[in-house]
Recover the amino acids of this structure.
């Protein structure tokens, strides 16, 4: 199978974030890492390749620094990489990102496209699904297990409250992969060395601009929630206090 | 029951060959790699028929990214960088040129300004830098030059063949809490290298193995250390100018401790603030993190910080021993550079420029060895010879006895420092003796509980929340992260000593000297009332203080799974 894995570079999860001057995004002086859910998508792709053969290609859209996530993927065993390189890709909405990726890979004839469940920075969980829509492919989300069966796939996806769904799906398809299903492999010294000689295709904004169109989403303002503290005393006989408290928890605080 | 990291038995280690492996991607290791790359480029231009390859020159760095474990004030004396990359000032991330200096002596409530800045603390012409950003920049230069930096890989063992160092083994990855391989287990590589260059920073773990194996510290002073604790702050504009340097002596330290504090103005808003404490202190209750918190409470400092907020925290040891503590720098198949070797001027409190220069000189020796195809001590000793003849020695020789003069306290130290200044560094003795730091620590019974002269630096700091923090809060600001499911990389060889002897004799000073709350004494579940040692290895900021300071020398710091550790972004 020929599998494409979409990988995003995100600010490191535990990094203390600071807002930029205009309050439109965080300051860039943080360290970045592979979006963790995408690392699970890559892991699943590499395991599929080990089982069924084929090729694993990784793609990212982002500035020069984002190349690091591709290099890490190549070191772990991906065969080649595609870098949509440019600052224009940084704050694209998920639909535009999906269009850009679709335009970049449409000539490739992939059997499968994997993405992580969502990104650790925006957390939209949309890009993979929209990518399927742009390509006109079926998709499924939160996938835990994948087995190739004849011309199609047998999948297990996670639902709420401990329920799972078994399903079948034709190829080609887009799947968003649940995190934690596999243990992530480590890059090895030899893998890192070999990654240097693996092909990396670079595309710029100009190569996909016509397919992307207008960015539909703009962040107006980002702010750190103001800490608020309010104390209220409920008086009355215990039974009534309890009833009022439950009412408040249910209807005002919405924690019940 | 805690398991300690140990080599797994019966594991096949994959092999890799290298010409040169540099362990540690800090300023020393990266300067070494870059200089070597330059020499190879020159060589290949001159001898296109017999080119040398850079493919097998490797830098290993335990951090996830180069620079993430680098911590310093930092002021950079540009001397060696000018030699390595003339005109580097134009492109390197330098925050400010030092514009203004002030040295103060603090008492608890007031300050006294030195009428002049003592010459060793004059920093005009030096740059305020973030050593994290500087190292990242240097790492990019190295990679662009064609040398591979393997980030997330630590050197865990030296490979020896009789008296020769023949390479290193990298860390095993994917080992669980009980020293069992996980499903993603990846054994460490045996990197067989013709030359192994140790650039691990202060108290390097392979360096320690090497020094012990070949008894390299014989006939030399033992290495002594200080620990630096630092916070990066953002404060309202106009209080500390860009390029302003403030040094303080005195409070919260007493005359029994060696150390001081600094504030550097980075850009008008960000400041670097920290305290260095010589680890030759005597009171086992001394807590360097507490000392930093107290320093911030001084009215002079608190006023500067008011309305500001902390951005980062970190801690790291630095070698103070000076010239007489530097071990032999080369042997069969190996060399040692930077803080690992002890290249630091303890009078000026600067070592980055010396680390870089030592790396460059080692690179020159490595290059000549590669051309000659000979890697024995005779060839690699070109490097120590070059150090002898370089400005490194010219700078370190006059201050060779500086720190040792302070062994008996601050006033003794000033006397000796003055005398040394007059006698070209000699002072009263040709070679001032010194002792390992842990031997200086005295038993807890010598320090009565009610003795409050050291109240500002002993025991845990109280957290107030905006100006002062407890260790846990500061550890959060260090960005430290490790794989949780792995054995402890802080190895205590006999925990009975902690639980039975140390508790009585020294009061478990590990709880105090560790600036990251790794060591805790907790209620013993089996015998009520008794306490036992408990480790939080995930908090470790890789400062190595425990390895240096524990009075029984039963703690060994080994690298945890590669990639783990602090995240010193912007530090």
């Amino acid at each position: 199978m020929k599998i494409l894995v979409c990988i995003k570079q995100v600010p490191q999860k535990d990094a203390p974030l600071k807002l930029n001057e205009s309050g439109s995004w965080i300051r860039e002086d943080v360290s970045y890492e592979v979006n963790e859910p995408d690392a699970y998508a890559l892991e699943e792709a590499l395991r599929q390749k080990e089982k069924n053969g084929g090729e694993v290609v990784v793609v990212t859209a982002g500035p020069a620094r984002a190349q690091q996530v591709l290099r890490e993927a190549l070191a772990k065993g991906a065969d080649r990489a595609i870098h949509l390189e440019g600052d224009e890709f940084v704050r694209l909405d998920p639909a535009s990102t999906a269009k850009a990726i679709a335009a970049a890979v449409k000539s490739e004839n992939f059997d499968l496209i994997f993405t992580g469940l969502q990104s650790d920075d925006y957390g939209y969980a949309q890009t993979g699904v929209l990518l399927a829509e742009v390509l006109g492919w079926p998709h499924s989300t939160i996938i835990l297990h994948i087995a190739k069966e004849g011309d199609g796939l047998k999948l297990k996806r996670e639902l709420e409250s401990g329920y799972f769904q078994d399903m079948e799906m034709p190829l080609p398809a887009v799947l968003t992969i649940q995190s934690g299903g596999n243990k992530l492999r480590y890059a090895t010294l030899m893998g890192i060395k070999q990654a240097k000689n693996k092909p990396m295709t670079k595309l710029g904004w100009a190569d996909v601009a016509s397919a992307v169109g207008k960015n539909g989403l703009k962040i107006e303002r980002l702010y750190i929630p103001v800490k608020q503290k309010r104390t209220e005393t409920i008086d009355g006989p215990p039974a009534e206090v309890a009833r009022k408290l439950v009412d408040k928890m249910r209807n005002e605080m919405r924690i019940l | 029951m805690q398991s300690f990291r140990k080599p797994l038995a019966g594991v096949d280690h994959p092999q890799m060959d290298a010409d040169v492996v540099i362990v540690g991607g800090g300023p020393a290791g990266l300067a070494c790699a870059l200089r070597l790359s330059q020499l190879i480029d020159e060589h290949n231009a001159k001898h296109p028929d017999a080119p040398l390859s850079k493919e097998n020159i490797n830098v290993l760095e335990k951090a996830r990214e180069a620079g993430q474990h680098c911590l310093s004030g930092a002021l950079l004396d540009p001397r060696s960088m000018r030699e390595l990359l003339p005109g580097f000032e134009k492109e390197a991330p330098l925050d400010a040129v030092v514009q203004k200096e002030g040295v103060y002596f603090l008492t608890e409530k007031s300050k006294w300004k030195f009428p002049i800045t003592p010459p060793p603390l004059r920093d005009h012409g030096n740059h305020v830098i973030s050593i994290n950003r500087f190292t990242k920049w240097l790492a990019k230069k190295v990679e662009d030059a064609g040398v591979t930096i393997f980030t997330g890989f630590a050197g865990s063992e030296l490979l020896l063949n009789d008296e020769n160092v023949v390479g290193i083994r990298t860390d095993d990855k994917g080992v669980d809490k009980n020293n069992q391989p996980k499903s993603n287990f990846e054994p460490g590589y045996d990197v067989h290298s013709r030359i192994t260059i140790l650039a691990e920073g202060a108290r390097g773990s392979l360096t320690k193995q090497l020094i012990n194996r070949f008894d390299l510290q014989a006939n030399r002073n033992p290495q002594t250390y200080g620990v630096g604790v630092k916070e990066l702050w953002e404060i309202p504009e106009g209080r500390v100018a860009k390029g302003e340097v403030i040094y303080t002596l005195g409070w919260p330290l007493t005359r029994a401790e060696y150390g001081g504090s600094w504030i550097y103005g980075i850009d008008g808003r960000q400041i670097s603030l920290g305290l260095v404490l010589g680890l030759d202190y005597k009171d086992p209750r001394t807590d360097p993190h507490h000392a930093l918190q107290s320093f911030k409470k001084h009215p002079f400092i608190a006023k500067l910080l008011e309305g500001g907020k902390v951005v980062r925290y970190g801690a790291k040891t630095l070698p103070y021993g000076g010239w007489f503590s530097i071990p032999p720098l080369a042997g069969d198949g190996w060399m040692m550079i930077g803080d690992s070797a002890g290249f630091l001027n303890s009078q000026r409190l600067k070592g980055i420029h010396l680390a870089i220069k030592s790396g460059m000189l080692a690179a020159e020796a490595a290059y000549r060895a590669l051309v000659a195809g000979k890697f024995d001590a005779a060839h690699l000793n070109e490097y120590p010879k070059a150090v002898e003849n370089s400005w490194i020695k010219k700078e370190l020789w006059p201050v060779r006895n500086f720190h040792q003069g302070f062994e008996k306290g601050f006033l003794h130290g000033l006397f000796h420092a003055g005398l040394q200044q007059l006698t070209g560094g000699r002072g009263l003795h040709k070679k001032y003796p010194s002792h390992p730091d842990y031997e200086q620590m005295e038993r807890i019974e010598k320090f009565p509980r009610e003795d409050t002269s050291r109240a500002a630096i002993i025991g845990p700091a109280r957290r107030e929340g905006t100006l002062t923090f407890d260790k846990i809060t500061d550890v959060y600001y260090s960005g430290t992260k490790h794989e949780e499911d792995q054995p402890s990389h802080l190895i205590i060889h006999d925990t009975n000593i902690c639980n039975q002897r140390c508790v009585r004799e020294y009061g478990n000073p590990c709880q105090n000297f560790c600036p990251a709350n790794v060591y805790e004494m907790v209620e013993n579940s089996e015998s009520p009332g008794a306490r036992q040692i408990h480790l939080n290895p995930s908090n470790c900021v890789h400062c190595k203080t425990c390895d240096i300071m524990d009075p029984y020398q039963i703690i060994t710091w080994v690298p945890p799974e590669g990639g783990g550790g602090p995240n010193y972004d912007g530090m």
